[in-house]
Amino acid sequence: MFEKVLIANRGEIALRIHRACRELGIRTVAVHSTADADAMHVRLADEAVCIGPPPAAQSYLNIPAIISAAEITDTDAIHPGYGFLSESARFAAIVEEHGYTFIGPTAEHIRLMGDKIQAKETMRGLGVPLVPGSAGQIEDPAVAAAEAAALGYPVLIKASAGGGGRGMRVVERPEELVQLVDAARAEARAAFGDDRVYLEKYLSNPRHIEVQVLGDAHGNVVHLFERDCSLQRRHQKLVEEAPSPALNHDQRLAIGALVTRAMTALGYRGLGTVEFLYADGAFSFIEMNTRLQVEHPVTEMVTGLDLVHEQIRVAAGVPLGYGQDAIRLSGHAIECRVTAENPLTLAPSPGRVSEYHAPGGPGVRVDSALYAGYPVPPYYDSLIAKLIAHAASRNECVLRLRRALEEYVIEGIETTLPLHLALMARADFANGDYDIHWLERFIAERQAAGAAPIA
Ligand code: ADP
Fold this sequence. Notes:
Elements: E1 4-7, H1 11-23, E2 27-33, H2 40-44, E3 47-52, H3 63-73, E4 77-79, H4 89-97, E5 101-102, H5 107-114, H6 116-125, H7 141-151, E6 155-159, E7 169-171, H8 177-192, E8 197-201, E9 207-215, E10 221-233, E11 236-242, H9 249-266, E12 270-279, E13 282-289, H10 296-303, H11 307-315, E14 332-339, E15 351-352, E16 355-357, E17 364-368, E18 375-376, E19 383-391, H12 394-407, E20 409-411, H13 417-424, H14 427-430, H15 438-451
Parallel strand pairs: 1-2, 1-4, 2-3, 4-5
Antiparallel strand pairs: 6-7, 6-8, 9-10, 9-12, 10-11, 11-14, 12-13, 14-19, 15-18, 16-20, 17-19
Helix pairs in contact: 4-5, 12-13
The protein binds adenosine-5'-diphosphate (ADP).
């Protein structure tokens, strides 16, 4: 097992990883920008190294600075968290070349799945059903027009190097295709330095359901059931739950087994998430994330496993030591992503937290690096806390989450706590009756009502 791990991240996930390391008897090294000198994970880590100024490009994405920090602290392994360098095959390779263990999959698997066109091709070969789409990237406009017509409008243009919901364009009519392909290409080139795009059938009302997998370095792979992440805004998840209210147990076991077979054939090591759109009883693969996910806690609550412990163990070469039969689903868990944003307009609201009180009690978990007096910096993602509730049934879980949201106090900045509370009161949410567009409509309705003059 490792003696010292460097955490190449910030915020709640850096703290989450620090906690897991501590429980495993591993010392931690925090790296941070000058904006995060007083951050909770920096305070708690055994050692801390400043790696640059606030902009991420000069600090959390600064590979030479991170490798130097690993050298001066004599680190054994590097955990990338999520975001930043977590899906950079280049970073994973550089980490390993310098003699450190990258806590994640192999650089080859990261590269393979980071290229969505290749990922889809690979999954097809492994017998996983896909969202119908173009045969590889779009090059010739005439071929693209024929492919789009065969798929049937609307179609979706997606970037092969895409992520975070960027570079996507819905095409409603044939005459828009060429112009929107050019726009998507330009956006992909600017965002990812790779302008390859492809087409997918645009599914009208699917749910987003993803399967969590875990593989060790000895060829053992298990799945940890699924999460439903359909509640999204701008293709970004806001609320996630496990298990999905849309699946029965047989469907759950079937998709889990399919994914496990595919990942076993691939020889996948580490944590991974295989994402599907689900409609009319059918699953269609969209992409795979080769890292720890923001929403991993809901899986932890319903399986009783600590995913970060497992991730560190398999990276150290420890065999899983258990099979699929040992993994049981218990109860229901829901996570709310709380962000430093106006709850109506969702405009960013960085600043100093003047008062802070986190909820507690049975079945409530808060993953957050906030404290009273903490200045939420304007430079990074607006996620400030994840509130997770776990209960025996979905119904009890919703009630528990509502009371925990009512207890939560974050003063001095605006947060999305009121948005989450409003969501809890909606019958569609209580019934688990929503698709990937539901939350956008809910937010638009709130904005329309909020903007109306008060009678
Ligand atoms: P990213 O990597 O940018 O997050 P994904 O491929 O994971 O992109 O898709 C993000 C979200 O976009 C999905 O969860 C879903 O809501 C929507 N989406 C993606 N592909 C389709 C599709 N073919 N039809 C309808 N919605 C889609």
